[in-house]
Design brief:
- The chain is of the alpha/beta class and about 350 residues long.
- The chain contains 13 helices and 13 strands.
- The model has no long low-confidence stretch (mean pLDDT about 95).
């Protein structure tokens, strides 16, 4: 039985769900190294083991505790979803050449090849494989990492994960208008594009198009001050999916955003999506044709966002078709079983290369 050890830092619920299925469907022994106070919901099929918190790419206490676990558990391969987790795993595995190390790259942040901290993690030759979330991330990393060490696979999303929210949505305050929703931590992050969306709502108001916008998450005060009365700032909420389920259209106005989970969530809830035409995000929707699930718009362009929303508002049949298409798109193209099979293949290949 092959043994996978997950380093907790940067691991989300979808990764835990996927690796839980790896244990059930493919017979892997799966463990996770987490601090004692970590509140992550770990599936019962994944063994939980204690390690010290990771504070940076070189946290000596975390490296030491993970090294003790590696000696005790003797996993075949270690998976780290963050650069700090990857660096910790690399240092902890020094002197243990038979342990495979797999990392994950889900950000479009630039790589600085001459920065020694990148040699501690992403660009370290000790790393056997990097899983890239999107094709543009994969193409970018090819300039720094051999093709043989790279592969790409979008994270999955199951329709069932949205069913509870759809059964109990947060209803809009005015059902007579087109209700828009935005989810994001935008405070201090202007590239998230919230201001463009707020300005687009202002344009729609001027044209007499009935809309309302709910902003879930954080926002800068200047954006709050610029908003009109039909923009509601809910703040950070654990019920974001219920707010999505209660809306008519999801809008993602980012200038950059690699592969936002919220677009999967919105489509699973049957929402047409208005999305900036940017690498990564644009790959998550179907922008044209009979199977269209949304509309791509020029980034940094409130007018383009307004026109897209106005188009949807004027075409209820289009919105109805996109609602059906969106759920079908998620069901057909973001299946959990395909993602689990992909990781089974990648991890087995790493073990074979290490043992070969």
């Amino acid at each position: 039985m092959a043994h996978l050890l997950i380093v907790y830092n940067g691991v989300d619920s979808i990764t835990y769900e996927s690796f839980g299925r790896l244990a059930v469907d493919y017979g892997w022994k799966v463990s996770v190294a987490v601090p004692d106070d970590c509140q992550a919901s770990v599936p019962p099929v994944i063994g939980r083991h204690s390690m010290k918190p990771i504070r940076s790419k070189f946290t000596l206490s975390a490296i030491g505790s993970l090294r003790r676990l590696l000696k005790e558990l003797r996993p075949d391969v270690v998976f780290a979803a963050s650069t700090s987790g990857l660096s910790t795993a690399i240092f902890a595995a020094i002197g243990m050449p038979r342990i495979g190390i797999v990392g994950y790259r889900g950000t479009q942040a630039r790589v600085h090849a001459f920065d020694p901290t990148y040699r501690m993690a992403l660009l370290n030759p000790r790393v056997d494989h990097i899983v890239c979330e999107t094709s543009d991330i994969l193409e970018y990393l090819k300039a720094y990492i051999p093709d043989s060490k790279l592969s790409q696979c979008l994270k999955p999303y199951e329709l069932a994960w949205a069913e509870s929210a759809m059964a109990n949505p947060v209803s809009p305050k005015n059902a007579e208008v087109i209700n828009l929703v935005y989810v994001g931590m935008s405070a201090g992050r202007p590239y998230k594009g919230l201001r463009y969306l707020i300005d687009a709502v202002g344009l729609l108001n001027d044209r007499g198009v009935g809309v309302a916008l709910r902003v879930i998450g954080s926002a800068d005060q200047c954006d709050i001050d610029a908003a009109t009365a039909n923009v509601e700032f809910v703040g950070v909420s654990n019920e974001a999916l219920r707010y999505i389920a209660g809306a008519d259209v999801y809008v993602l106005p980012s200038e950059r955003d690699a592969s936002p989970r919220v677009l999967r969530e919105a489509q699973a809830c049957g929402l047409p999506c208005v999305v900036s035409d940017i690498p990564g995000a644009r790959d998550l929707i179907v922008p044209s044709g009979e199977k269209s699930t949304g509309i791509l718009v020029e980034p940094r362009n409130p007018e383009a966002i307004a026109v897209a929303i106005e188009t949807l508002a004027a075409n209820p049949e289009m919105m109805k078709r996109m609602t059906s298409n969106a759920r079908q798109h998620i069901s057909e193209n973001f299946r959990l079983d395909g993602y689990v099979a992909y990781f089974d293949s990648i991890l087995k290949s790493v073990i074979e290369q290490r043992n070969g």
